[in-house]
Amino acid sequence: MGRSSADAQPSKQVLIGSPGTSAYSEVGLFPRGTEASIDLMYKNTLSPALTIQTMADAHLPNSHPDVTPDWQPYDFPRTSLLEGIKVQLIEGSEGQRYAGSVPQVWGAVAGRRLAAHGGFCATTLMTTARQYIRDKYEHLAQVEPLNMFVEYLAPLPVGPYQVALETLHLGKRGSTIQARLISNEEEKDHTCTVGIIRFGILKDEGHTENIHPPVGPLPDRVNECMRWTDALYFFFNPPTGSVRTYVPNDKGTPFWSEKYGGQNSRYQWDKLDNGEKFQLEHITMLADLVPAIPANYAEEGLMVGARFRIPTTAIHIMFHSEVKDEEWLLTKSTMNRLHAGRFDMNIQIINDAGEIVASCVHLCSVIPQGKSGQITGKL
């Protein structure tokens, strides 16, 4: 499934429609005055924003001109996830609160403002809860996350925040912690995201028989996949640029594969764009980076975001095994149904050995863009 190939094939380029940029300028993501040039990028067939290329460029970052010709530089540092989620204990909080700050590169457009990426929020809750349990209960051995449920209540603004923690259960075999992300913008505590995280021993100790049902055929990165990039998508949703993505190159590319899963599915291989290796901390972020599968059914593909907001409303994730220094991970995602403005995605995260390292149920809403009450068209 896995090694890079030196045999480059001719690149394919696919033009997709422009979502318009005025809304993104208003929240400060596009510099003022760049809207026309970015829109032109979509009208000029010689300079498409979405490019599909072969594995020969796997060593190149997304920003490289041979990978994303129309890459638009950010006006802020590309802080890594592991650096961005760092927090500090708040003095006088009796060990119950930590403070951190959402880097701008981990924000995305949420209505008319920048808000923290859902995967960043969930990862912050998990890692802060783990730090809390290690700080507060030093005698415990079971301090690795086993499963987590996260509910998104409101967008968390980019910038400073607090994490409030509470022990719900403490036991020899496992402990459960509640963690809340609180915005610093209001004097009164305003919970934006809440998570329930169960901790235990993630490493297999051989007490039970392991069963690994086959995950089915997986696309070969070298022979069946091509790189997918999208300059505008990276620009208005910077977290998406944190990984290099390869997708099956058959019918439906880049949004879905006729051979792998069909139109209600998405298979994609990812590696970190900054050269780091995947750790357990990256798993929830990776699950929330899967492009919304309803885009597979939209004529304009991912640019359906011009007509609809598609926020994550909840994530339930189970960690099956340790993740240490993985160069490549595959997300295998399937949507069961879109109905009444809500849809689900079942996501399996699989390593190079074909083992499921985590599984996730990802819930989202579909909200028409435009003024209050104005419907802009059906998906």
From TrEMBL:
| SUPFAM superfamilies found in the cross-reference section | Thioesterase/thiol ester dehydrase-isomerase
* Acyl-CoA thioesterase-like N-terminal HotDog domain: residues covered: 115-200
According to the lineage, what is the superkingdom?
A: Eukaryota
Q: Which residues form the Acyl-CoA thioesterase-like C-terminal domain?
A: 249-365
**A Pfam family this protein belongs to?**
4HBT_3
Could you tell me which InterPro entries the record lists for this protein?
A: ACOT8-like_C, Acyl-CoA_hotdog, HotDog_dom_sf, Sec_Metab_Biosynth-Assoc, TesB_ACOT8-like_N
Q: What is this protein called?
A: Thioesterase-like superfamily domain-containing
State the organism named in the record: Fusarium albosuccineum
